[in-house]
Amino acid sequence: MAMTSTPVPGADPASAHFFHSLDEGRLDLLVCRQCGTAHLAISVCDVCGSIDFSSEPASGIGIIYSFTRVHIAHHPAFADQLPFCGGIVELAEGPRLFAPLLGEEPISVGAPAIFEWQQADGRGFAAFRVSAAASQ
Ligand SMILES: [Zn+2]
């Protein structure tokens, strides 16, 4: 039986830096040298219009901005992982990205999330480890 490859987005000029850093086991940001805004994938700073960036490692610390629990596999590669959670993580530096969420449920908006590098089919990707919400 043939293995089903995990679908991975292709890089474009704006996201090449982002995907390259993940393939090397890091999550790097593009920080605008003019205004200091951190970006994940960009060619022109959407704050000041600069095209001058430095590459800096992200802290890997963020919070859950939004999330969903997936119960239906829309690609066969994910069929044996159901149900799983994915969500938008807002990094401490500001950028937001969609990523798989790992850890115990319940997950809640605002919960801390820590970058955890993952690999599938030779490509690196970002996942985030979430702590279960403390009961109060
Ligand atoms: Zn800028």
Describe the protein's architecture and organization:
The protein is mostly beta strands. The protein has two domains: 12-57, no CATH class; 59-136, OB fold (Dihydrolipoamide Acetyltransferase, E2P), CATH 2.40.50. It has one helix and eight strands. The chain has one helix spanning 16-23, and strands at residues 28-32, 38-39, 53-57, 61-70, 84-91, 96-102, 112-120, 123-130. Strands 4-5-6-8-7 form a five-stranded mixed beta barrel. Strands 2-1-3 form a three-stranded antiparallel beta sheet, covered by helices on one side. The longest helix is centred in the first third of the chain and has 8 residues, at 16-23. Bound molecules: zinc ion (ZN). Residues 32, 34-35, 37, 45, 47-48, 50 line the site of zinc ion.
Quick summary:
6% of the residues lie in helices and 40% in strands. By secondary structure, the protein is mainly β.
Largest sheet: 5 strands, mixed, barrel
The whole-number mean of residue pLDDT values reads 92
The H/E string reads HEEEEEEEE
Give the CA-based shape.
globular
Distance between the termini: 48 Å
Quaternary state reads: single chain
Number of strands: 8
List the helices and strands and how they pair.
Layout: H1 16-23, E1 28-32, E2 38-39, E3 53-57, E4 61-70, E5 84-91, E6 96-102, E7 112-120, E8 123-130
Parallel strand pairs: 6-8
Antiparallel strand pairs: 1-2, 1-3, 4-5, 4-7, 5-6, 7-8
